[in-house]
Amino acid sequence: MNQPPLYIRVHPEDNVAIVVNDGGLGEGATFSDGLVLRERVPQGHKVALTDLAEGDAVIRYNVVIGYALKALPKGSWINEHVLRMPTPPELHDLPIATIKAPDTSPLEGFTFEGYRNADGTVGTRNILAITTTVQCVADVVQHAVDRIKAELLPRYPNVDDVVSLGHTYGCGVAIDAPDAMVPIRTVRNIALNPNFGGEVMMVSLGCEKLQPERLMPPGTIPIAAAAVDDAIADIGDMEAEDNGAAVVLQDEGHVGFQSMIDSIMRMAETHLKRLNNRRRETCPASDLVVGVQCGGSDAFSGLTANPAVGFATDLLVRAGATVMFSEVTEVRDGVAQLTARAANGEVAAAIIREMQWYDDYLKRGGADRSANTTPGNKKGGLSNIVEKAMGSIVKSGSSTISGVLSPGEKVKQKGLIYAATPASDFICGTLQLAAGINIHVFTTGRGTPYSLAEVPVIKVATRSDLARRWHDLMDVNAGTIATGEATIGDVGWELFRMMLDVASGKKQTKAEALKLHNALVLFNPAPVT
Ligand code: CA
């Protein structure tokens, strides 16, 4: 598209703005207000709107994102090489619950067609998930899954898919270390994701540290018959298998590989029969549990896609739904915004607790939050983590934060939730699955084919150029916001309605249709042995 030189300034107090034009702009390019570029500025990168002296604060989102390392006259390209990063905010003397959400009127009348579960959660897909207690069984389970899909699934037309919940945990780990609770509860809570209908099925090797009864203590599985709990207590004999709880490959009853596959397929069929009886029913939008995250971010993330997601987040919260945002290192520099939006002192304290835990975790590894930004982020115009964080937080909209989850915990309340996770796309997605999401929204500027097998992922492009090139991978183009073709509200509503259609199964996401999905990646802050 051939358009006149265009920049976007986010806040009236900002002294830098973002170049919008595809391909960037060359030296001498003149904007409608008379600003002239002193040098070439790539698309998504910052231009100085005023003359900056050495040491002057560089302001975007009305926040200091850095200090000029040298004099930078108006029209200069502002990038990571000419900025000194601010120190991270302290975790004391923060504003607590000082901001009220602007519009909290209920949004009524929106529904979707979902699978209601006995525990009150609602699935958006009907999937048989096979949980593994240890990596050793992964290939056997995958072999079985391929056969289940080919031979059994066609007989159960109401079941969408069969997935193996493979991971790298279970043995060779310090299973009693305090932080081991994070990977263990993650594997447990993923098995209980609403899309799996409470049909927990495990495959164990037999000698691993993460024994099935440790993974699923009695009482964990909400709807399964008492027989399943009993069976888990008796793991190691074939009785457990008869009750549909776990196949143990080292069980003496198994003679050869084929016997293991037969056992897994037999057990899978008992679960498939029950899953096949699930039917969609009309559910209020309040039954949505949406996880939002970003990956492969650029300077447009905070201008287009993330504000549109934030708009949709506010709609969801007003509709009574649950929305969780995550990625600790991408909110750390904006912690004061989060504590100010906390519903009360308890929620604010939980936010601070998670930030402190993560500061300590990074420090143990000899790093800090600045390790987050990637070469691609910088190429896309994000100079440092402060700028990236300010653009990332806007996914959370403006609603009150009503709860906080530690990594791997399951959500138990409605509203806007801060689910503390690393920013790594795969780990964040895995932890949000454990938290109980039934829809995932993912924004990207650089582009990533990211998706999940367990829950549909709606991908939002920050730029029209990406949406055009990756036309069969991106579901929503928020780039139209930068060019003025659409407003944040237009794209926010489009996304909200798309979530209802995708949740209902009326629409598949692009990655879902292509059957793209990433492996689960557990967050294990505990030692391995
Ligand atoms: Ca991410």
TrEMBL record:
EC code(s) of this entry: 4.2.1.42
InterPro entries for the chain: GarD-like, GD_AH_C, GD_AH_second, SAF, SAF_UxaA/GarD, UxaA_altronate/galactarate_dh
GO BP terms in the entry: D-galacturonate catabolic process; galactarate catabolic process
Pfam families named in the record: GD_AH_C (PF20629), GD_AH_second (PF04295)
Alphabetically ordered keywords of this record: Lyase
Single Gene Ontology MF annotation: galactarate dehydratase activity
Entry keyword Lyase: yes
Signal sequence, start to end: none
Positions of the SAF domain: 14-84
Domain of life: Bacteria
Family: Belongs to the UxaA family.
Name this protein carries in UniProt: Galactarate dehydratase
